[in-house]
Amino acid sequence: MSNAAIEARRLTLIRFERAAGTVFGCDEETASVPPARFLMNGLTIALATVATALAATITYLA
Fold it and tell me: Which ranges does the record mark as transmembrane (predicted)?
């Protein structure tokens, strides 16, 4: 794997991490803990599971 491909993969993963953080309310500028009611939401847990599965799949296939 060339250095350019490695760098492109790393940048893509960083973008996914930032997007997931934004979706779940964890912006880099606001390092506060999200409200507990947000963490108890079933939809939130389902979305986190899907995001984790997607990231793992992308990492595996790349």
Answer: 38-61
